[in-house]
Structures are given as structure tokens and as C-alpha cells.
Design goal:
This protein has 2 domains: 125 residues, 3-Layer(aba) Sandwich (Rossmann fold), CATH 3.40.50; 174 residues, Dihydrodipicolinate Reductase, domain 2 (2-Layer Sandwich). The chain contains 10 helices and 13 strands. It is globular and about 60 Å long.
Length: 314
């Protein structure tokens, strides 16, 4: 039996990726809306009433409004920021813990994590859960990302003939410490206080690394870098789309360069533990359009349908 799926916001970067991932699957029937009807609420509501699942790839306010159009008629998977911290919605990061996966399986409303948040939470949730750092630890994170996550306008600027000179350089932003991912980063990591977060957009298309430095002298007990790596290995032991890399010897770390675009086009997330027992650098690498957006959305769909979560993703 074919599952009917509608992507509301099919023309955006994430929507297009979801459509591309699903249109080749024999178990999915994609319901598409005519371009001239994309803002016609009646037409959208009609398609939602026919769809088994509706992806919301819209600005936040539009995503909230869209839920009222299809309420009780379709199951939602929201790729916007609108519902990520809403306790009524499942949070679409099944590898974090069995209870996350269980809620996704049985929910009619699942919120896809943000790209930066996915990398950050993949590292912080286990650290806090397994009590290697306290919930009130002062956490700082920085991240490098390709420009595709900035939306159509920014993509056009980066790829245009009249690209501003400063776009050739990595650019820090969200300097006011009010990045839209911060609420979910705090909530789903179990942190008492919001972390400081420094995102950096760079002149390449997709892929990101989220990095969290830990000065262990600030902890109330001693932990080792090997202990942290072992914890990550155990926590994600059965994860199909999250890989924890082995701890590199010091000499190998010295010669290693961590690129941010290595997983571009893939749907996996990698975790690295660098440094030493005194100064640790914990990193998560992923594609901001894959495991950080459309790949995670399709993974949630697969779980909600009740099939292998990696279907169409490997």
C-alpha cells in the first residue's frame, strides 16, 4: 500500500530535498500542489486531507498556521523551528534515547531538530545524561556551516556573479546570543542555562561541524578523554545513522584536519573526541541539509510508518 505524502513548502531548500528523496520510492505517492496554488489555503487544506503525512517546510508562523489547515486530517512532520520545544510534539532525534524513538513512533506530530541543534545535542545530551558534566555547567559551542542553510537569498548571493568580498571569508553571526536554535539546544541537552553559541557561515555549499570545548578543571570531579569517548561509543552503540569515531592517539590528532563538508549529501552524523584529559574538544559533523534537515525528516517519516528508519537514506 502506498503512503500519500504532501510537502508544504516544496519549493524551498529543505522541501526540495525531501521531494527528491521521496520521489524515487515505490512505497510513497507524492501529492504536489500547482505553483500558483502554493499560497491558496483551501487548496493546501484539500491536499492535506488526502495526505497520510504532511511535511511542513515553511517559515515558523506559516508552519503554525498550516497545522490548523490539516488538523486531525494528516500526520505532521515539521522541519521549521515552530514546534521543536512544544511538549505535545515528538522531537525527531530517535538516537538520543528509547523514549524519543517511542514518542516518534506513536505521535501524529513530530518536529525535526535544527541542524546546529542536532550536532550540539548529540554531544551534550549524553554528557549530561550520564553525569559527566553537571546540568549547570557553563557550555560554549561554535560551529562552521555551509551557506545552503541560510536560505534561497543567501545561496543566490554566494553563488552570484556579484558576491560581496566579505562572503569569501568565514563570517560569524548571531552575535547577540539569540540564535533561534538556542531554546531547543538547552531543552534537549538538559542544561540549566542556555549555552553560548557562535555559528560561522563559510563559502562552501553544505556540511557542518559543531564543536564544544570542555575545560575539565571546571568540573567538580576528574574525567578522562577516554572515558568520554567510551561513553559516546556505548550511548550510540546501536545507532544506524550516528557514528562515534575512536579516540585518536596524540600524534595522529596533531596531523589531522577536521573538514566540515565531508558528509555533504549524506544522512549520517559523526562524533569525535579530541584533546586530552585537561582540555577536550568534542565535535559533531553532519550535513546541514541531510541529518540536519531533510534526511532527519525522512528518517522520522520512516519511523512513523513503521519501516526501517534508513529506507531511502543509505
Amino acid at each position: 500500500m502506498s503512503i500519500k505524502v504532501y510537502v508544504d513548502g516544496q519549493a524551498g531548500t529543505t522541501g526540495l530535498k525531501i521531494v527528491n528523496r521521496l520521489e524515487m520510492r515505490e512505497d510513497i505517492t507524492l501529492l504536489k500542489i500547482a505553483d500558483e496554488d502554493r499560497h491558496n489555503d483551501q487548496k493546501r487544506a484539500e491536499i492535506m486531507s488526502e495526505a497520510d503525512f504532511t511535511f511542513l517546510c515553511l517559515p515558523d508562523d506559516a508552519a503554525r498556521e498550516a497545522v490548523t489547515l490539516g488538523e486531525h486530517k494528516t500526520r505532521f512532520i515539521d522541519a521549521s523551528t515552530a514546534h521543536r520545544t512544544n511538549p505535545a510534539w515528538a522531537y525527531g532525534f530517535p538516537e538520543l534515547a528509547p523514549e524519543f524513538r517511542e514518542k516518534i513512533m506513536h505521535s501524529d506530530q513530530t518536529a525535526v531538530p535544527g541542524c546546529y541543534a542536532s550536532g550540539f545535542i548529540s554531544v551534550l545530551y549524553p554528557l549530561v545524561k550520564h553525569k559527566l558534566i553537571p546540568a549547570d555547567f557553563p557550555v560554549f559551542a561554535y560551529a562552521t556551516s555551509g551557506y545552503s542553510g541560510a536560505g534561497k537569498k543567501a545561496i543566490a548571493q554566494y553563488e552570484g556573479d556579484e558576491k560581496p568580498e566579505e562572503f569569501n571569508s568565514p563570517r560569524q553571526y548571531a552575535l547577540s546570543q539569540q540564535h533561534k536554535h538556542l531554546p531547543e539546544m538547552q531543552l534537549f541537552s538538559g542544561l540549566t542555562y542556555q549555552p553560548m553559541f557562535n555559528p560561522i557561515i563559510c563559502d562552501y555549499y553544505s556540511g557542518m561541524v559543531v564543536s564544544v570545548p570542555i575545560q575539565t578543571r571546571m568540573l567538580d570531579r576528574k574525567i578522562s578523554i577516554q572515558q568520554v569517548n567510551d561513553m559516546f561509543q556505548e550511548h550510540y552503540e546501536n545507532a544506524k545513522l550516528v557514528r562515534v569515531n575512536a579516540l585518536m592517539p596524540p600524534e595522529e590528532q596533531k596531523a589531522f584536519f577536521l573538514a566540515s563538508n565531508t558528509l555533504s549529501g549524506q544522512n549520517k552524523l559523526e562524533i569525535f573526541t579530541f584533546g586530552n584529559d585537561d582540555q577536550m574538544l568534542l565535535c559533531a559533523r553532519l550535513d546541514n541539509l541531510g541529518k540536519g534537515a531533510s534526511g532527519a525528516a525522512v528518517q522520522c517519516l520512516n519511523i512513523m510508518i513503521g519501516i526501517d528508519e534508513t529506507t531511502g537514506l543509505l
